[in-house]
Write a structure and sequence with these properties.
Chains A, B: One of its GO terms (cellular component) is plasma membrane. Two copies of one chain form a homodimer. Chain A is mostly helical. The first copy, chain A, has one domain. Helix content of chain A is 70%, strand content 8%. Chain A is built from four helices and two strands, in the order H-E-E-H-H-H. In chain A, helix 3 runs antiparallel to helix 4. The longest helix of chain A has 38 residues. The relative contact order of chain A is 0.16.
Chain lengths: 194, 194
């Protein structure tokens, strides 16, 4: 255990320097969870509000309104579900982290559970980003081999919403990776210190 | 560094149970890395060998041979690249883990670096699985809203290759998640024990 550096707590001699660095790490942890919350929430809102209706000529002299909506593709439904879960998760763990900050430090057990779920969420959100990105790329560029036509030349604002949303979910994935890395760093620091 | 438990080192008396459990965890670690190697390698091989040529009628009386290949879609090129990286990574870390096993235990520093890269690879492989899965689903079911026709009714063996490959990469992702969880468990056990 580390030595004393505060005169106020002579009995808890070993905890002071460990505690101050642990507090710094908790502040970064809370900041990353707030970032995760913000990016996931905005990504879901942008995706859900991306509906665009255009008048499409289906026959000579006949023009009908056709919608482009996110729930036309299962990849985007999964995307919205995964990002919503990430958003909810970030609220719960963010609040718990703030409580730990107010109590003056987090327990190893709590960090252990957090990093387990962070890693699981990382997999889920990364897969959602990949799925949405793969399908959106076909929408943007089309695929001449399978004769899938691009739709972004018609539904411009819809595609802009999608691109922004996928970019934000990429930020969410990276934030989750940073959270996992931070927790592992904190855990291995604890081992090195003892 | 993991302590010794041989009778030649009687001074480090407290280390025996730690070492034996550390060895058990290393064996599981090596087994998971072998599984990761096998699934990633087979997924890449199945994907790369999925080429199928069919005679497609393009006009009345005119039939031309048309290929279906994985590199017709950028999502699948990324998939092959990501799984190849995972395969190479599993070889390197697997060999290092076997060396650690022969030396009688792994250091905390090595575990720290492994779990960092494991988490990064988890994100990359999960995103690749998602991207390939999203595009393959369109190939399987089509999308009536964007008028993207399904191709799996024509290229059956090609699609079977794809489905197997994506399933294997899902196993790779789960293996990487288990590797991250195992490392975190080992690290927090070390903290609890000290």
């Amino acid at each position: 255990m580390a030595p004393i550096d505060t005169p106020e707590a002579p009995l808890k001699s070993s905890s002071a320097p460990e505690n101050s660095s642990s507090m710094g790490q908790l502040v970064v942890d809370v900041a990353l969870r707030v970032l995760l919350f913000a990016t996931a929430l905005v990504a879901v809102i942008i995706m859900v509000t991306s509906k665009q209706t255009k008048m499409i000529p289906v026959a000579p002299g006949l023009v009908v309104p056709l919608d482009a909506k996110f729930d036309h593709s299962p990849a985007f439904i999964y995307f919205v579900a995964a990002l919503s879960v990430a958003c909810l998760y970030s609220i719960i763990t963010g609040v718990l982290s703030v409580f730990a900050l107010m109590r003056g430090g987090s327990s190893t057990k709590m960090q252990f559970h957090f990093v387990m779920f962070d890693a699981l969420l990382l997999g889920i959100v990364a897969a959602a980003t990949g799925a949405a990105g793969g399908v959106a790329y076909i929408g943007l560029k089309g695929n001449s081999h399978t004769r899938w036509n691009k739709i972004c030349n018609t539904y411009g604002s819809f595609c802009f919403h999608f691109a922004s949303s996928i970019l934000l979910s990429l930020v969410s994935s990276i934030t989750l990776l940073l959270l996992v890395w931070l927790s592992i760093y904190v855990l291995s620091k604890k081992i090195a210190r003892r």
